[in-house]
């Protein structure tokens, strides 16, 4: 592998010989111009002439030179100048401090040729001084500057060096880096294994940064497996920690949180998170992160049925996605652009994007549960085209994708709760044990706390499922009550109120019916006094009539009318189901969001968010 400028070229991947000749000439000139080659002027000139003249030279002893010979000459020329370069540059750099070298590496992070002397000087200095911690840092710097296919080698070197140090912090950090490399290659099984190893070591330290970094990557695995609520909880923890002093991890956590909201169907929260992310990118001066929030919002707009907006956003970010490092996001963008066209009844436009997703699947082996739909849609497309051969091909691709997903998910799902979640509980148990070991009644207190912890987990789990069951029953009962109310027309009973005349009662009832029919109850500023004035009555009479014939006080009467109106609106309007809670409260005429949510809970027996979620399930 040879690094030149910002480009990385693997000789084994080059097919055209003329390009290799040209590239070699560039490297020869670079070496001889930068090195002190005055000791070998004729030899250097001869090599350059050989390369410039091509394969067949008019010199008796070099007439039959072919490409392999030119490469030998190239590497020979490098070896002749290596000692001079080393003496002049490498030794002087090794004498510099680690801080100086690290600053120079960061300064040249976008130019591997300029960064390379500092990278290798850092490594040689650390090895020479037998400084294991700085050697691990040196390998990590090389990892970040290397192409994807070399990163695993440097990650291995990090782990091997860290193990020699016997430092939990260093070993855990190196294992986490190796897991991240596997994750970037979308090898989720190996990534997870190294995350768990890292967690075992890092959890024994007091390094909060590494603890939350590990938590972030575990959350990514949970997201992949579909444990969105658990992932949301972990990402929120990471956001709270990283927001204080780690800008990039903070934005990464914020982006992942938005994606989770999309997967749970909370599209309004997803949009809010993406908008906040773009705003924070500007505040923190990290504009390159904006494309990930736009990418997320493009997908979110698809689920909001804004297909043209979704296409525009995704096509805007596509050119900025690096196909080498961001092939997953590129594949996902292609998938949703295709889905948008499919929804717009333009399958011919969708198919090329679906084929790009398939290409990444073939070349990189990348697939996730939602992307498998590509193959289902391609089967439908070719079935309509009556193309049996293509149908069979995509059936095979679908089976292959399912096989990979089943194997990967089965392995991860079988281990994540066992190796991470349970270990988190056990880690807490160990901390408690260390605290209680100094206390007099250690055994009794320890057993009591462990019993309480496990009882709390069991009780919490039981309550969770019971709450779900109760909420579902309340939801069904509410719908049944609404249907009965539609059938049964309200006929007020006729009975006397001792201190109000029959005529006055009937007058107020007629006005109440008109008030309800005209939906005057949606007025935000409505009070008993204003309604009394509108009815040309008095507050005492109005309160008594409402209490006697509607069987509730004035405030509950008005709130229940508002909630009944909103429930009916949500049942009949899919658009309103995507409104925020505060917007729905305003729609129903509530002066504040807390008043609205409390009134809804009181009237319906369930939260407004649960009601909307169930409506979406029942009426997608």
Polypeptide structure, described:
The protein is mainly α and 620 residues long. It has helices spanning 17-34, 41-53, 67-94, 98-107, 112-128, 132-145, 148-165, 168-184, 188-202, 208-225, 228-245, 247-264, 267-283, 290-303, 307-317, 327-343, 347-364, 373-384, 388-436, 442-487, 502-517, 528-535, 539-549, 554-572, 581-587, 593-604, 608-618, and strands at 2-4, 7-9. 76% of the residues lie in helices and 1% in strands. Strands 1-2 form a two-stranded antiparallel sheet. A hairpin with a 2-residue loop joins strand 1 and strand 2 (7-9). Helix 1 (17-34) packs antiparallel against helix 2, helix 10 packs antiparallel against helix 19 (388-436) and helix 16 (327-343) packs antiparallel against helix 17 (347-364).
Distance from first to last alpha carbon: 53 Å
> Major sheet: size, sense and barrel closure?
2 strands, antiparallel
Number of helices: 27
Q: Assign an overall shape.
A: elongated
The portion of residues forming beta strands comes to under 5%
Q: Can you give the helix content as a percent range?
A: over 70%
**SSE order:** EEHHHHHHHHHHHHHHHHHHHHHHHHHHH
Strand tally, please?
2
Strands ordered across the widest β-sheet? 1-2
| Poorly predicted parts | 1-87, 413-422, 425-429
The secondary-structure class comes to: mainly alpha
Average pLDDT over all residues: 77
Rg calc: 34 Å
List the helices and strands and how they pair.
Blueprint: E1 2-4, E2 7-9, H1 17-34, H2 41-53, H3 67-94, H4 98-107, H5 112-128, H6 132-145, H7 148-165, H8 168-184, H9 188-202, H10 208-225, H11 228-245, H12 247-264, H13 267-283, H14 290-303, H15 307-317, H16 327-343, H17 347-364, H18 373-384, H19 388-436, H20 442-487, H21 502-517, H22 528-535, H23 539-549, H24 554-572, H25 581-587, H26 593-604, H27 608-618
Antiparallel strand pairs: 1-2
Helix pairs in contact: 1-2, 1-3, 2-3, 3-5, 4-5, 5-6, 6-7, 7-8, 8-9, 9-10, 9-19, 10-11, 10-12, 10-19, 11-12, 12-13, 12-14, 13-14, 14-15, 14-16, 15-16, 16-17, 17-18, 18-19, 19-20, 21-23, 24-26, 25-26
